[in-house]
Each structure stands twice: as C-alpha cells, then as structure tokens.
Amino acid sequence: MALAHPPALSDTIIALSTPPGAGAIAVLRLSGPEAIALTDGAFAGKRLRDQPGHTLHYGTIRDADRILDEVVVSLFRAPHSYTREDVVEISCHGSDYIVQEVLRLFTRRGARLAEAGEFTKRAFLHGAFDLAQAEAVADLIAADSQLSHQVAMQQMRGGFSRELKDLRGRLVQFAALLELELDFGEEDVEFADRTGLVTLLQEVQALVRRLLRSFELGNVIKNGVTTVIAGRPNAGKSTLLNALLHEERAIVSAIAGTTRDLIEDEVSIDGIRFRFVDTAGLRDTTDVVESMGVERTMKRVLQAALVVYLFDITTTNPTELQAEIQALGLAPGVPVLAVGNKLDTASDPELDAFRSRPGTVLIAASRGDGLDELQQALLQLVRGEGLDRLGSSTIVTNLRHARSLEAAALALNAVLTGLATGAGTELLAADLRHALAALGEITGEISSDDLLTSIFTQFCIGK
C-alpha cells in the first residue's frame, strides 16, 4: 500500500497534456469517475458510455449549439488506464483559443483543473506503480540524452524498485522475529538467530553502499557535467569551445583578454551531457573589467565538476603547467584534464615535453585535430568503469533516494554495532525499524502527504 489511508479520489480532473502554445494538435486529458460522462455531454458522435475501452472516436466538441472543434477522443476504461481510473484524451487542433475554450467548457460542467503531477499521483495512489517508478516518469520526460533515457526507463519499469523490495523483504523477516522477542520479553527467549542476522545485515549493507556509490555516476547521467575550460589568455579556450559545439559560439581574437564574461553551452558526448564554460584568461591585469572576468573565472573553477586546463604548447613547459594547475586551488577529487593546444605549430621538442605526461591530451583546436582523443579522455574521467555495467546494474539518480539510502546505511550500521556490543532486543528492533522505514520511503511503502506533495508538484501539469 502506498498510504495507510489514501484520499478519496471522487472528483474528475482535466489538464492540457501537450506543451502549451500553438501547434498542429493539442491533447487534453480527463481522469476520474465522471470523465466519460462529462465528455459524452459535450461530444457529438458515438455515445461514449456505450463504447469499449482502448478505442478512438471521431466527432465534435460542442458548447450548446456552438462547435468548438473537430476532435478524436481516446477512451480508456478503469482499471486499464494510466491512472487506473476512467480516462478520456481529447485530441483537438493546437490553438490556444480552442484549448482554453474546451477547458472552460469542462470546468463549467464539473471537472477540476489538475494540479502539477496529479495524473501520476493518482496512478501511484491506485497502485499502478510505486513512488520510485513515479519519479522515474518525470525523469523520462526530462531525459535529454541516451543514457538519462536508459536509466529513467529502467527505473520506470521497476528495476530499482525490485532490488529495494528484495533488500527490504530480507530484513522484514528478522525484524518480525525481533518484535516477537519483545512480546515474550519476560521469558528471555531469542527467536532471531544473531549470527544469521549479522551475515544478512552485512550483505544488505554492502548492497546499500553499492547503490550509494552509483549515485555519483547517476548524478552525472541525469544532470550533466559542468566542465570549466580555464587557462592563460590566448591559449585557445574560445576556439576549443567553438570546436566542441561545432558553431561560432564564442568570439575568437588574437588580442589577449578578449573573453571577459562566462560563456556556457551544452554538448552530448556518447550520451553524457557536458556543460562547457568558456572563461576569461587567467593572468594579473590592471584592466578593471578583465579583473572582474578573472574573478568570475576563479569562482566558476571552484564550482566545476571537471576542469579542462588549456595551455599553449609553444609557450609553456611542464613545470609551469604544474604550477598553474596547482594555483587553481581545486578541492581534492575534482578531476583536471591538461590539454595542450596548438599542436600544429609546436616543434618536436615542445611536443616531446608533454607526450609522456600522464593526464595530458594534445590538440589543435583551430583545425579540430585531437578532439576525438579529448572527448574520450573526458568520458573516461567522468564515467570510469561505471557505465560499462549500466545494462545490468541499478544506477541511483535521485537525491531523495540517495538520502534515504544514507539513512538506511546509518541505521544498519547501528544494528551491527548493537549486535557486536550485546545491545538489547528493543534497541536492535528500533534501529532495524529505522532502516526499513528509510528503504520504504524510496518506493512509497511508507510515505506522507507532505512527501507526496513535494514530489508531484515538481511534475508538469498534465502528467
């Protein structure tokens, strides 16, 4: 069950389910006990109440004697619909005027305008899927790369939920035995095998930690990688940005200090979204505007998930390069890729100085030489070996899920500590209940109205 006492869903809701604005077609969706009857009252065509579900019907929508539009009505009868209620979808012409007139007509007849995410919320409350799957619906709508789509589809089809339910199910049996011990507390009996419980907890803890480790990769897949291109003036940062984007996004000039502000744009590389940020050249300057650009660059560098430090092969030696990268003051763990530019004009000795340097890629940004190697190096930095297991492993992409997993890990650790120190059954049972509650919050087996409101208001209206 999703909620101990699901709210009564006695009203019928309506919303535009396609993006607002003029288009060829707009789809308005109704869901609820009166969805078919309300549509029947405005539809001139077949009597919908007499038609089977999963059928299409052509006719007109009328407001009294006035024809609003010619439409196609899609009919879905409960429980064989997205929300598990009676659902009607009206496909009309995509005029804002027509859409608003149809919405006004149905709200006058008794339908209520749907809240954000209310159709998916009703599907959850009716048991069509659990909360983790419901959240994956929003992720699927927002997916803008192959990998984000793949992960969202896997979660929407229940891959993550099945793994969590298995974890939780293995713990519930031991929790029940501990609770039974509490009922017979005065008789000093043990129903739960402590040795077996330790083994189980260690296995579950290992699985929870693996899921938590996957969140770093999942966050990259879902939100992309903020990648700052930093370096001295005239290193070729703007030229590199343009080459990666395949367009003249940034102004390129031989005059040092041309870039004064941050220029950002996105590109997908092998399914991972990178948000590249072109920055002002790093140098000491008396120019007030350029100084502001340098200050902004340093702030953005410190916020980056990955830094591409671009340097001119012809004017930089390895010792200088190392000093410049250290001067960035990056936090431990932030990857830096050193990229030597102007490969086409460098001499052999200049190239030899960097060819053997680990973590360095050599390119000629103006000609596009070495860009494939640069992209592969970027991918390797952000994904390691994680994406190679994407087809068979669960990837956590949701911050709420990660926080619940962290809470579960803490509670499981408390149980293990209690077992090692001989803690009483009451304390062990309480910590185990906390672990079960944290895992249950992810799928909605344990939830509250406030939690559901927080989640579903992030959806678009009409979904």
TrEMBL record:
K(+) binds at residues 234, 253, 255, 258. Mg(2+) binds at residues 238, 259. Residues 224-383 form the TrmE-type G domain. Homodimer. Heterotetramer of two MnmE and two MnmG subunits. Binds 1 potassium ion per subunit. It is found in: Cytoplasm. The keyword Transport does not apply. It is an enzyme of class 3 (hydrolase). The gene is mnmE. GO terms for molecular function: hydrolase activity. Its main location: cytoplasm. Its cofactor is K(+). InterPro entries: G_TrmE (IPR031168), GTP-bd (IPR006073), GTP-bd_TrmE_N (IPR018948), GTPase_MnmE (IPR004520), MnmE_dom2 (IPR027368), MnmE_helical (IPR025867), P-loop_NTPase (IPR027417), Small_GTP-bd (IPR005225). This is tRNA modification GTPase MnmE.
